[in-house]
Write a structure and sequence with these properties.
globular; alpha/beta; 22 strands; 30% helix; seven-stranded mixed beta sheet
Amino acid sequence: MTPPLLSIEDLSVEITGRGRRTVQALERVSLDLAPGEALGIVGESGCGKTMTALSVLGLLPSGGRITGGRIRFDGTDLAAAPEPVLREVRGNTVGMVFQDPLTSLNPTMTIGAQVAEPLLLHTGASRAEAREKAEEMLRLVGMPYPAERMTHYPHQLSGGMRQRVAIAMALICEPRLLIADEPTTALDVTTQHQILELIDELRARLGMALILVTHDLGVIARRVDRVAVMYGGKVAEQAPVQDLFAAPRHRYTEALLAALPERAAGPAQQLATIPGLPPALHTVPAGCRFAPRCDFATEECGAREPRLRGDGGAAPGHVFACFHPVGSAPDDDAPAAAVTLPAPRPSAREDDGTLLRLTDVVKDYPLRAGPFARRCGTAARQVSAVAGISLTVRRGETYGIVGESGCGKSTLGRLVVGLEAPTSGTIRFAGRDIATLTGRELRAHRRNVQLMFQDSYASMDPRMRVGAILREPLAIQGIGDRAGQRARVGRLLDDVGLERGAADRYPHEFSGGQRQRLGLARALALDPSLVVADEPVSALDVSVQAQILNLMRDLQREKGIGYLFISHDLAVVHHLADTVGVMYLGKLVETGPAEAVLGRPLHPYTRGLLDTVNVPDPQAGPAAAPLGGETPSAAAPPSGCRFRTRCPAARELCATTEPPPAEPATPGHCVACHFPLAGVASGVPVR
């Protein structure tokens, strides 16, 4: 047999934090990876996925240390290797895509310099050669206008574009092993497809192995050979991908799959969730670590720890650590009872219940020659970020906004909360034009409209503890005394599934998924009427995602909260949204009820997005090819229909005349297309 490229044997890691409290982050983790093989690692936030990946390259956080085991890569034990050896491996033979692209990029260096840097360090390439290859790599990962982006800085790019830069840096030296920690979290479905296809091509051409750390089970189902499910710092189950999805054996794996939005029977039913919280690893529990949350746990589960094993019912290579695996109980095949949500509680309404109304909203940004320069050139060039958006959000309604990175979704959200002023058009909240609000009126507006930022870590002060971060909105608005504010913080942490002790920690001490939960808690602190949620569950594993979506829906029904829900996850939008708007290059190209827009799309762009969805089923076959062509620059959008340069059905009329919104079929289902589709079912099970 071919020896493994990477062999992790009984790896144990401890982290000593403030107060000398020691956390057992990993305990006796063993994984093998053959040359050219792809291994997926899944599990909830804090289960040890990222810590396993960081251990390979010796990038443990402050206070972290390997206390046992070996990490053999190509014959070298990296666990015992000195720093010079690790520096030679990092970015050269082993590439790493970090979970948070903004914090992994140098804010003082241009994009081109950062992508070229590994070549200069490891290959001896000249600066001209490195720059040329860096531009080519940016083009390969789908960066629009790569030559122009080479001169930009990280803060000038969207979250999706920064993720592409991080991937380009990891791949530029053509490593033998790529460790990708949530590499497609911030990417829309078409860019995600391009990135994963690129990684697959490099694997085939170079024999590159892949460790893919992700919570996206759709990506796992289509892109890896084997899957390791981690829980509480240990491997709970490991199997070939086909076997894991067809017949999971560990009760934790079964619960993760059940929490997928695609498994929900309909919008009137809650998503399945896993009760309780993952174990706090500063005190290692006795017995099975999943036992406190498992419906099938017995005294045996609490008394001793199950070992990884297979049995006659599992396929070769399928091992699990469970005393009562799936299929061992007589009622395993009984269908779960559907949980129907209560009817919405009537809320006070003004006029027709409209909470937010946008009318012909435009937002243009002037192009500048540099960070301290005035507008470039003699003629004022502009970026058309939002181009004439009109929409309505009613009390208790969720309006979903979907589209590719750079289409204007986040800019639209910033306009609604008042962080940006529109170039033209009106934004009316509760009947008032927010552009006319001043003083106390503006303060009240900011209390009633809250924003969940896409980058939860960058939106928090790293010098403040979480308790102070969550108290800050209450203190600014003068709500309650200090004791009441602390009690409110405790309830918020309960609501989003974090232990109350989290209030004493700093943002950097949390995983990406946990920071996303803190972002939701801060947005809910003031009991707002409208929450603009910009990718609110993009960094969450499926179980916590289900908890958050259920929580958002429950709060909506109890208090009549409206959501402007911005996301690239079509399954989540399909489950949560009442109305969906599809954005392309600053315009809404299709709007209507979620069932109509995502079930029977009329616009070719909507159809293209749906056809590229990664379905969490290895038997579903490969996703369709992504939309062709390159997204045009918002500084020079095409004439007529902005989508025509990528549309397979475009004709001469599309180049000369902009299509107006129309209702060719279902009432309320509008499409801006001269030649709309027939409204045939998409065939993509996004629920």
